[in-house]
């Protein structure tokens, strides 16, 4: 089944609704297959007939281009590997992001949140992304890794990375090589320093476990870049998307303000309603048949997470933002062997931030016509979330 849709980055949901009704499984004009239903996306994420890479070729996007610095980095990420390589890389990262380690994090997150909130509340008009959403996870992940990347450098690098990976053309991959090389050099220097002078951070842990997990210097550098990007981009997006949703739904905002213990359930609904990772992709290892539609072997298949999270067969009244929703088994953190390793950490950041923001929500007014989105189909990338803040 082939189909063509044009999607508005600010609001893809009317089109997702149409896809779910008319062509839940379809192939676009570039040959990429799309899955939209909850059950199909969940199956794609967990079924071994899907792989992270096209067969017989290097790279995850194009088999015919030359290997760039970006290919070199992402090919070492667990996310773009199948077992057994995936298992080795995931186990290695689990040493750092273990539930035991999470225990000590709550007070660190609270300290960062409180300091950002204090300065936010002194202003009368702000871009919430710049003033709160971005600095919170960046500050945290810098402290965890043991890096000290300044906000602007990181934002430039990171936006270049996520946009190149979203567009995926050989030219986009080539164009960001200077930033990738700069990032690699930055982490290589830090790793060399930790080899002689270890600290209490992820880079020192990676250096300490390198022989257990057979890690080369390139593996360690690529893992640092992965943890840095995975650890801040999605969380900053969720913070912005969540605040936007609460301010656009005043009755839900009020419900949360009068029942602050609903915060964890509100966070799950934010993650379902606007999952920051909009889609996930896989390659078919063999022919897959869904609804009598045949997807041949070695095809690129995209699972639209935000369409699946709005599937009426799974979520009653899916387009209603309802912070008391029960049985909210959304796919925002993925499913199957690649499910998000940082989900506990992300939830802790989001729950702490929204718990502290909630008493102040009635003072914020969203300037809706000034909201800006980045044109990125993989992430729900809010760039500017302008607010005015009323002083008491
Ligand atoms: C709201 C925040 C977050 C969301 C929505 C999110 C979402 C996801 C999703 C959907 C996947 C699976 C992608 C796929 O299967 O193709 C994933 C994987 C991953 N995430 Fe997250 N993530 C978040 C925060 C974090 C944080 C804070 C970290 C840690 C520093 C992290 C680390 C990872 C890692 C390491 C993987 C790869 C796991 C593997 O390949 O086995 N994530 N994330």
Molecular structure report:
It is a single chain. The protein is an alpha+beta fold. It has one domain: Cytochrome P450 (Cytochrome p450, Orthogonal Bundle), CATH 1.10.630.10. Helix content is 50%, strand content 10%. The chain has 17 helices and 12 strands. The strands form 4 sheets. Strands 1-2-8-5-3 form a 5-stranded mixed beta sheet. Strands 4-12-9 form a 3-stranded antiparallel beta sheet. The relative contact order is 0.18. The mean pLDDT is 94. The structure holds protoporphyrin IX containing FE (HEM).
CATH architecture: Orthogonal Bundle
User: Can you count the beta strands?
Assistant: 12
Order of helices and strands: HEEHEHHHHEHHHHHHHHHEEEEHHEEEE
* Number of structurally distinct domains: 1
Q: Radius of gyration, rounded?
A: 21 Å
What is the 3D form?
globular
Number of helices: 17
CATH topology annotation: Cytochrome p450
The helix-and-strand class reads: alpha+beta
Strand ordering within the main sheet: 1-2-8-5-3
Q: N- to C-terminal separation? A: 57 Å
Topology (elements, then pairings):
Blueprint: H1 13-22, E1 25-27, E2 33-35, H2 38-46, E3 50-51, H3 69-74, H4 85-96, H5 99-102, H6 105-120, E4 125-127, H7 128-133, H8 135-145, H9 151-167, H10 170-175, H11 177-196, H12 202-208, H13 217-248, H14 250-258, H15 263-273, E5 279-284, E6 288-290, E7 293-295, E8 300-304, H16 305-308, H17 343-357, E9 364-366, E10 372-373, E11 382-384, E12 386-389
Parallel strand pairs: 2-8
Antiparallel strand pairs: 1-2, 3-5, 4-12, 5-8, 6-7, 9-12, 10-11
Helix pairs in contact: 6-8, 6-17, 8-13, 11-12, 11-13, 13-17
Bound molecules: protoporphyrin IX containing FE (HEM).
């Amino acid at each position: 089944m082939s189909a063509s849709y044009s999607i508005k980055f600010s609001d893809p949901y009317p089109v997702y609704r149409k896809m779910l009704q008319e062509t839940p499984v379809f192939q676009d004009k570039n040959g990429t297959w799309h899955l939209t239903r909850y059950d199909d996306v969940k199956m794609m994420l967990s079924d071994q007939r899907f792989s992270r890479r096209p067969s017989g070729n290097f790279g995850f996007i194009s088999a015919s281009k030359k290997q760039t610095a970006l290919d070199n980095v992402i090919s070492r990420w667990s996310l773009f590997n199948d077992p057994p390589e995936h298992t080795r890389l995931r186990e290695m990262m689990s040493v750092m992001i273990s539930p035991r380690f999470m225990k000590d994090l709550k007070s660190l997150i609270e300290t960062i949140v409180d300091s950002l909130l204090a300065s936010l509340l002194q202003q009368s008009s702000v871009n919430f992304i710049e003033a709160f959403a971005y600095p919170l996870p960046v500050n945290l992940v810098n402290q965890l890794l043991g890096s000290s990347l300044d906000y602007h450098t990181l934002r430039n690098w990171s936006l270049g990375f996520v946009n190149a990976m979203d567009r995926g053309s050989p030219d986009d991959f080539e164009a960001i090589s200077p930033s990738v090389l700069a990032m690699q050099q930055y982490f290589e220097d830090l790793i060399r320093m930790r080899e002689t002078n270890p600290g209490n951070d992820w880079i020192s842990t990676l250096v300490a476990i390198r022989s257990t997990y057979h890690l080369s210097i390139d593996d360690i550098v690529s893992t640092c870049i992965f943890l840095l990007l995975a650890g801040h981009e999605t969380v900053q997006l969720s913070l912005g998307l969540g605040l936007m949703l609460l301010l656009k739904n005043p009755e839900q905002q009020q419900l949360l303000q009068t029942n602050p213990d609903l915060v964890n359930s509100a966070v799950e609904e934010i993650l379902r309603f606007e999952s920051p990772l909009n889609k996930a992709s896989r390659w078919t290892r063999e022919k897959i048949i869904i609804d009598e539609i045949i997807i041949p072997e070695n095809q690129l298949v995209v699972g639209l997470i935000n369409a699946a999270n709005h599937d009426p067969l799974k979520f009653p009244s899916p387009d209603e933002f309802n912070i008391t929703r029960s049985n909210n088994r959304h796919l925002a953190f993925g499913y199957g062997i690649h499910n998000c390793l940082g989900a506990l950490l992300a939830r802790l950041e989001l729950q702490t931030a929204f718990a502290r923001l909630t008493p102040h929500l009635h003072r914020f007014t969203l300037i809706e016509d000034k909201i800006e989105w980045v044109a990125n189909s993989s992430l729900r990338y809010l760039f500017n979330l302008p607010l005015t803040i009323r002083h008491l």
